[in-house]
Amino acid sequence: IAGITQAPTSQILAAGRRMTLRCTQDMRHNAMYWYRQDLGLGLRLIHYSNTAGTTGKGEVPDGYSVSRANTDDFPLTLASAVPSQTSVYFCASGNGRGDTDTQYFGPGTRLTVL
Amino acid sequence: GQNIDQPTEMTATEGAIVQINCTYQTSGFNGLFWYQQHAGEAPTFLSYNVLDGLEEKGRFSSFLSRSKGYSYLLLKELQMKDSASYLCAGLDSNYQLIWGAGTKLIIKP
Fold this sequence. Notes:
- By secondary structure, chain A is mainly β.
- Helix content of chain A is 0%, strand content 45%.
- Chain A is built from no helices and eleven strands.
- In chain A, the strands form two sheets. In chain A, strands 2, 4, 5, 6, 9, 10 and 11 form a seven-stranded mixed beta sheet that branches. Chain A has a four-stranded antiparallel beta sheet with strand order 1-3-8-7, with no helix packed on it.
- In chain A, strand 5 (44-49) and strand 6 (56-57) form a beta hairpin.
- Chain A is globular, with a radius of gyration of 13 Å.
- Chain B is 0% helix and 57% strand.
- Chain B has no helices and eleven strands.
- Chain B has strands at 3-5, 9-13, 18-25, 32-37, 44-49, 53-57, 60-65, 70-75, 84-91, 97-99, 103-108.
- In chain B, the strands form two sheets. In chain B, strands 2, 4, 5, 9, 10 and 11 form a six-stranded mixed beta sheet that branches.
- The termini of chain B are far apart.
- Chain A binds chain B through residues 40-45, 48, 58, 90, 96-99, 101-108, and chain B through 4, 30-31, 33, 41-45, 48, 50, 87, 89, 91, 95-102.
């Protein structure tokens, strides 16, 4: 693995189904983030984790949950998908505060909820 | 509230210079980022400014004025591969990034 990976690349999901988007980084970054990106809108933060074992809510957390059991992995779960969760989801990682706050993004997961 | 404003779309000619502006309002301020995002791809880091002034990095430069809540990204000697969206993001007092909607830059031959 080089950098940050996400799976799946894309998914079509029936409304009401449960779905977990996977994210793994090998850069030993402390912080990880989940964003959604919708046409005409900026990236919106869903959840974040500043370090393994801790998580926090972002701007649009409703309907999503995360866990951070270790440094490398940060899965995002949709407990019961709804059509408004159709979006492109990006996972990102970074070192944290200060000028090392540069975030590195995974390739994204394109999710369609029907 | 927190807000990042940037133009939705700009068009420029190959070989020319273009300036993409960004104004920001954040709760506290810990820096301003510019990212590039090609269609269908992930954003990639271009620049970070926390002090006033111009930071030059090859064909790309980024400027910040903290007193005016203003930044711009300057792209010189435009190439077709520079066609992309350019995202401005401010780092607030909680070290969370507040993102603009992005400026789609179209380069014409």
